[in-house]
Amino acid sequence: MFNETRTHEITVDTVILSMFDDELKVLLIKRHTEPFKDKWAIPGGYVRMSENLDQAAERVLKERTGVENVFLEQLYTFGDPLRHPTSRVITCAYFALVRAKDVQIFSDPDVAWHNVNDLPPLAFDHNQIITYSRKATRERLEVCPVAYQLLNEKFTLTEMQKAYELIMGKQLDKRNFRKKVLCTEGLIELNEFSKSTSKRPARLYTFDKINLDS
Fold first, then answer.
1. Which residues pair with 95 in a beta bridge?
2. Of the candidates 163, 167, 162, 160, which has an alpha carbon nearest to the alpha carbon of residue 134?
3. Can you tell me the distance from the alpha carbon of 79 to that of 86, in angstroms, rounded to the nearest whole number?
4. Strand partners, 28
5. What domains are defined for the chain?
6. Which of 57, 104, 189, 209 could lock onto 12 through a cystine, CB 3.0 to 4.6 A?
7. Which of left, alpha, beta for 124 (phi over 0: left; psi -120 to 50: alpha)?
8. Contact residues for 59 (Cβ-Cβ < 8 A; gap 6+)
């Protein structure tokens, strides 16, 4: 039973998604204390009295993983009374799509990228939070090509399709995908070609990010 005279505590948790090795991955840390000692978790921590939620999310992410200068978007507030085994803790979750090469994480075996489709047992309700973030990303992809946030500044349509497939969790027809994506507002065709393949060079594209993010 809960002590009804005791107030709740507030935390922030951050879901950082990236794409490399042809997989969609999430950044996790291994907990060193109870509850859930030695379990993997998304980076999180308590909100200080002197900071707002955004500041707390940025601070916690940097302290726990070394990652900074990432645009974090507020995702959802998780407040199930039983989500924490010993306290009444409400967490505000954030998420971001990032290029792996743009983030520098601690050189620490307890901070690592994990395939979202092959996660280890997670602490608290973090599996639910990751699932919710993936659902939110898929929904956003229907109205805005947010997949570009996972890609290099210049990319091929094949690379873009792979990003879409990883987010959507299914394979897409190449012809239909290209027909649709070539009509995407903000997509710019470059007079440059990829040199990373022995096959026929593929044309490179980029996004007008100012237009997309406005």
1. 15, 73
2. 167
3. 14
4. 112
5. 9-141 (3.90.79.10), 146-213 (1.10.10.10)
6. 57
7. left
8. 45, 48, 51
Q: In whole angstroms, give the CA distance from residue 91 to residue 83.
A: 9
Q: Read off the pTM.
A: 0.88
To the nearest whole percent, how much of the chain has pLDDT over 70?
A: 93
What are the tens digits of pLDDT across the range 52-95?
Answer: 999 999 999 999 998 988 889 999 999 999 999 988 999 999 99
Q: Would you say 37 and 31 are in contact if contact means Cβ atoms under 8 Å apart?
A: yes
Q: Please state, as a whole number, how many other Cβ atoms lie within 10 Å of the Cβ of residue 100.
A: 15
Classify 14 as helix, strand or coil.
strand
Q: How far apart are CA 149 and CA 98, in angstroms?
A: 6
Which one-letter DSSP state was computed for residue 106?
-
DSSP secondary structure of 33-91: SSSSTT-EE-SEEEPPTTS-HHHHHHHHHHHHH---S---EEEEEE--TTSSSSS-EEE
* Bridge pairing between strands 203-207 and 187-193: antiparallel
In this prediction, residue 1 has a pLDDT band, given cuts at 50, 70 and 90, of very low
Question: 131: how many CB neighbours lie within 10 A of its CB?
Answer: 14
